[in-house]
Design goal:
By secondary structure, this protein is α+β, with helices and mostly antiparallel strands. The chain folds into two domains: 251 residues, no CATH class; 120 residues, Histidine kinase-like ATPase, C-terminal domain (Heat Shock Protein 90), CATH 3.30.565.10. Helices cover 62% and strands 10% of the residues. The chain is built from twelve helices and seven strands. The strands form two sheets. The chain has a five-stranded mixed β-sheet. Helix 5 runs antiparallel to helix 6 and helix 11 packs antiparallel against helix 12. The longest helix is centred in the middle third of the chain and has 81 residues. It is elongated. The two termini are 58 Å apart. It catalyses: ATP + protein L-histidine = ADP + protein N-phospho-L-histidine. It holds the Pfam family DUF7134. Its EC number is 2.7.13.3.
């Protein structure tokens, strides 16, 4: 880290020191001004140096009480100008206080105090030096006070503009994310409606024609055969429209692997073999009597196991994992654990893997819980229904 950045961070943590820093060069300049004479350098007039230091002390609190500090330093500088008229001191402490007031306070207060200070400084200087108010030296001090106030207001405006720009950028990013999520949700709803309409329409026709074929199978085989032909045509049309609708979800760069047969738990051995080839030892245990699974449950269980083992292999840095499939009367419990050390970081990277598991399980009426185990390692437990209810389907 660069030294200027470290210095700025340190000053940001020590407000009083940062506020008082400008007083140091002012006191040094005051000492040098009182020590410089026509005949060369001499001993500084310490009472004037002390008075300058006293007038600068309130600067340590200028960011906390800018108005009070501006008035106090102005009074001190005017007094110093009156008692030390022979050195024509510049009210530097007041200028710093006026700048701070303009940068931190309201515009009306800053300009009211700034103009009043400019008039007071000019009047006191002209009175103590027997000069005209419109003389060059007097107007110079008037310009100093107005310039300090204008500079403070300019800095204040710049900070406000930068803050407003940052707020606009953050708001635009948030709105962009919200809009993206809204469009994704709308697209999902639209596709779901399309799928529902297509499948419901054709399945309704197939169901009606199947009833006709069943009724006419013995009495009128010719009409029954015709009804079966209609069933074949409607089922093929339903598949074609379903394929076209779901094809909208495919990516343009999907490879041949994306059109492979849907994986099932029967393919678990090949999945485990792939992980073992990469160095992760996986044991698979079946408990309970195997029951027929709904295709959606079969696919969901496979995908959850695949995602959990992938997260274990990529993020947990362990060597062993276990998969337990427990078949119940109405549900299938899938448990995936690894042998990580207690307190070792585990999980699904940025959390997208766990979110995907939850979405898959929730879609078929199941649940997923995941988290570290007290004895060490990470565990994913999924409860999935063996068959889908009509409401879930």
């Amino acid at each position: 880290m660069e030294l200027p950045m470290v210095w700025r961070q340190w000053l940001a943590r020590h407000d009083r020191i940062a506020d008082a820093l400008p007083a140091v060069p002012l006191v040094v300049i005051a000492a040098a001004a009182t020590a410089a004479g026509k005949d060369g350098w001499q001993e500084p007039r310490w009472h004037e140096v002390v008075w300058t230091a006293l007038s600068c002390m309130p600067l340590a609190f200028r960011s906390r009480w800018p108005l009070g500090v501006a008035l106090f330093t102005l009074a001190g500088d005017l007094t110093l100008m009156a008692v030390a008229s022979h050195i024509a001191p510049t009210p530097a402490a007041s200028l710093i206080a006026l700048y701070t007031l303009a940068a931190l306070g309201s515009r009306r207060t800053a300009w009211a105090v700034g103009l009043a200070a400019a008039v007071a400084i000019t009047g006191v200087f002209a009175a103590t030096h027997a000069e005209s108010v419109v003389a060059g030296a007097s107007l110079l001090r008037l310009d100093f006070a107005i310039a300090a106030t204008a500079l403070g207001r300019a800095v204040r405006s710049r900070r406000e503009n930068l803050a407003a720009a940052r707020a606009r950028v953050e708001r635009a990013e948030r709105m962009q994310e919200v809009e993206a999520r809204r469009r994704v949700t709308e697209e999902r709803v639209r596709i779901a409606r399309d799928l529902h309409d297509v499948v419901a329409h054709h399945i309704t026709l197939v169901n009606a024609q199947a009833g006709v074929a069943h009724h006419l199978m013995r009495a009128n085989p010719d009409h029954a055969y015709e009804a079966l032909a209609h069933i074949k045509e409607n089922s093929r049309a339903a598949l074609d429209e379903l394929r076209a609708t779901v094809g909208l979800l495919r990516q343009p760069d999907d490879g041949p692997g994306s059109r492979a047969p849907i994986p099932r738990l029967a393919d678990l051995d090949s999945l485990v073999g792939g992980f073992e080839a990469s160095g992760l030892s996986v044991s698979v245990t079946h408990t309970g009597g195997p029951s027929p699974l709904a295709p959606a449950t079969d696919l969901t269980a496979y995908r959850i196991i695949q995602e959990a083992l992938t997260n274990t292999h990529k993020h947990a840095s362990v060597s062993r994992a276990s998969v337990v499939l427990k078949y119940g009367v109405h549900s299938l419990r899938v448990t995936v654990t690894d042998d990580g050390r207690p307190g070792a970081p585990k999980g699904a990277g940025g959390g997208h893997g766990l979110i995907g598991m939850h979405e898959r399980a929730t879609a078929i009426g199941g649940t997923v819980t995941a988290g570290p185990r007290p004895e060490g390692g990470f565990q994913v437990v999924a409860e999935l229904p063996l068959s889908l209810s009509s409401a879930t389907a």
